[in-house]
């Protein structure tokens, strides 16, 4: 079976995501579309608006054949680690190709770019370190480095989606057998665009804002009916749902103890310890904690690590012991799993139990905290069978 | 001004407490009654049913002239430390006498008992250690030791109130100028009695059960009208209010990290770590965690330390730097404070602010967590003036 992989968040699943699945199928001519999807916490350090099971269900209803969880240790990370986690899982599953959206140009030869980057990787990293003192932004620094080392590549480092695309290409080039890459032109809406787009391709950001502001009916043009229905069945989760727990945590943890949280450094623990006393909501804490050095996303990720009390050791353990956690499949996806089973060299997990719980400890912990959001939310991990569509 | 001290919890304030104040005034012939009262968490490792301000208000309305907070570091402790904290605060305030209830006999000469104990203290402690191996209960062990060392004293070590009375006497004997002791016969009800007593002296336990079971009207015979009114104004807090936070804490703390909690030892951290996964309420966790070695009260105290993430260092800091925190007074109490001010050698605190916050850090933390119980509960410490009756 010919397979094509996507690395996604589906927060929530919308028309652009359906287009992505259809375009991947058309471009790769594949039999099976495999989506590697973040779990209950997302790349930008936020809880998902719906739990991972609902989002997997939406994807399966709209054309994905198999949904695998991108573990917390890779999902709640900067673009490079997020991409590495996704690409490695696709490779472990023996997926043939990778398809992602780009909002710039789909003409860029990502495979060649990945190889060129790999060839110069240590020089790029050295220069990146050396230019630390310049105070340049990430796009400025990378542009300067490429102009110096690889002048034949003119790249734009300012778009989050394009940065992700380049990260996929770089990780893919490192594989023993790199996948074929199918970049597709994103339709209609920019990543950060916050207004609903009348031509059916609104961004997830715009959809989240429409839901929060109560103009929910407008979504019929932006989302498939199936995922609209899921949205109506459960509350729309955001950070404020976890604010009482986060506040409690920060009020009862010393700065010294906070320092054992993954990525907590440079005295930021003292800043949080002080600011939480004045904050009455998550948004207020974010606004109070924000500095020039710390972007919004970086602080959100840090607060996700605080909420879950994530340590460096937990992240390292999870990265050193990868696994494939199946969230759902249809008949085609199940057949593909059966076909690949023999050649998959890492644990393939369809049921979390006492025997494999230590492997998934961080995801289980994330699920247990996410589950407290509202009372009817089901157990996220133990003894939960994959969704069958 | 002649003063008499009481060491109390008022959980909630009832007729027996009013009798205690009246009897103390009559026995000591004092001008001012000073109550040293636990704050928001109590000796047996429970949140108070009402916050410390409401309980102080009730006491002032029913005859106490001055209410001082017994700090967390002394309040949530076994009888000996609880008594030490209370007696030391009374001594620091220059209080002349101490009055407490006993459910055995008020004929016992507690002052002489205190001196006799002090004289033999190291021998008693040595024997106590030596008999560890016998597996005797605390009452059995103490009875055997007294029979051996001080056969002239026939004491009952099985009543919680009597154990507290003896602890007061022992601590009092250690003072440079011991206070006069007025034991009074407790009326009508045993400490643990769980049925409302028709002759107006119900235990706090019986009152709490009546409130929880909804037979609230019966309380008119058990409590002064003023404290009934306070009870009706706010929810009746118990451990279940803090169960979501405690569960979250236990789910997101490793056994290694739990070990840094005060008094956590002997592998009990692993027991909690395991049992919390099965528990759906505080009561369920208690029932699951209970062992022969760990009494209900000991586990409750331990879980209070977990909830507040209390470390040994915090307890030691608080004990080494005592202070007098005023919760409320009437005119007489205020005059007494003015009179004593010059001879009080530890900080006298009527307003918590940035200058003195580090001294009261543990009480402030306890208040911040207690405050999450319901949304209309006021800030417990910062800038809160004593209640004036």
Description:
Chains A, B: One of its GO terms (biological process) is tRNA modification. Chains A, B: Pfam families: HIGH_NTase1. Chains A, B: It is found in: Cytoplasm. Two copies of one chain form a homodimer. The first copy, chain A, is 46% helix and 10% strand. Chain A is α/β, with parallel strands linked by helices. Chain A has a domain at 239-313. In chain A, strands 1, 2, 3, 4, 5, 6, 7 and 8 form an eight-stranded mixed beta sheet that branches. In chain A, α4 packs across α8 (160-174) and α5 (110-119) crosses α8 (160-174). The two termini of chain A are 19 Å apart. The A-B interface holds A 244-245, 247-249, 251-254, 257, 260, 307-309, 311, 365, 368-369, 372 and B 244-245, 247-249, 251-254, 257, 260, 307-309, 311, 365, 368-369, 372.
Give a short overview.
Two copies of one chain form a homodimer. In chain A, 46% of the residues lie in helices and 10% in strands. Chain A has a domain at 239-313.
List keywords for this structure.
homodimer; 389 residues; alpha/beta; 46% helix; globular; RNA-binding (chains A, B); cytoplasm (chains A, B); nucleotide-binding (chains A, B); ATP-binding (chains A, B)
Provide the fold topology:
Two copies of one chain form a homodimer.
Chain A: E1 3-8, H1 15-28, E2 32-38, H2 52-61, E3 66-70, H3 72-75, H4 79-92, E4 97-102, H5 110-119, H6 121-130, H7 138-149, H8 160-174, E5 180-185, H9 204-212, H10 225-233, H11 243-251, H12 255-258, H13 268-275, H14 282-289, H15 296-308, H16 312-320, E6 324-329, H17 331-340, E7 348-349, H18 361-370, E8 387-388
Parallel strand pairs in A: 1-2, 1-4, 2-3, 4-5, 6-7, 6-8
Antiparallel strand pairs in A: 3-6
């Amino acid at each position: 079976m010919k397979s094509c992989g996507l690395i996604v968040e589906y927060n929530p699943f919308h028309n652009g995501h359906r287009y992505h699945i259809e375009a991947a199928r058309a471009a790769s001519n594949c039999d099976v579309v495999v989506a590697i999807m973040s779990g209950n916490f997302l790349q930008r350090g936020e809880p998902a608006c719906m739990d991972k099971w609902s989002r997997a269900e939406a994807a399966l209803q709209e054309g994905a054949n198999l949904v695998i969880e991108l573990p917390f240790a890779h999902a709640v990370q900067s673009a490079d680690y997020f991409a590495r986690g996704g690409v490695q899982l696709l490779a472990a599953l023996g997926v043939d190709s990778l398809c992602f959206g780009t909002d710039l140009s789909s003409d860029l030869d990502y495979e060649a770019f990945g190889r060129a980057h790999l060839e110069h990787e240590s020089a790029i990293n050295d220069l990146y370190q050396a230019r630390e003192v310049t105070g340049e932004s990430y796009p400025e620094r990378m542009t300067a480095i490429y102009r110096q080392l690889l002048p034949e590549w003119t790249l734009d480092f300012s778009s989050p989606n394009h940065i992700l695309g380049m990260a996929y290409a770089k990780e893919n080039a490192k594989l023993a057998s790199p996948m074929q890459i199918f970049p597709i032109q994103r339709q209609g809406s920019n990543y950060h665009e916050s207004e609903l787009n009348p031509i059916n391709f609104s961004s997830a950001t715009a959809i989240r804002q429409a839901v929060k502001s109560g103009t929910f009916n407008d979504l019929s043009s932006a989302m498939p009916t199936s995922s609209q229905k899921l949205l109506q069945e459960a509350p729309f989760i955001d950070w404020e749902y976890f604010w009482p727990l986060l506040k409690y945590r920060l009020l009862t943890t010393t700065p010294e103890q906070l320092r054992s949280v993954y990525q907590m450094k440079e005295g930021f623990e003292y800043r949080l310890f002080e600011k939480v006393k004045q904050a009455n909501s998550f948004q207020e804490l974010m606004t109070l904690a924000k500095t020039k050095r710390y972007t919004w996303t970086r602080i959100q990720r840090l607060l996700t690590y605080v909420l879950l009390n994530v340590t460096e050791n937990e992240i390292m353990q999870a990265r050193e012991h990868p696994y494939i956690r199946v969230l759902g499949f249809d008949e085609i996806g199940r057949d593909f799993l059966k076909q690949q089973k023999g050649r998959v060299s890492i644990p393939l997990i369809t049921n979390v139990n006492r025997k494999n719980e230590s492997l998934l400890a961080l995801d289980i912990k994330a699920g247990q905290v996410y589950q407290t959001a509202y009372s009817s939310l089901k157990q996220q991990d133990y003894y939960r069978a994959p969704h069958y569509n």
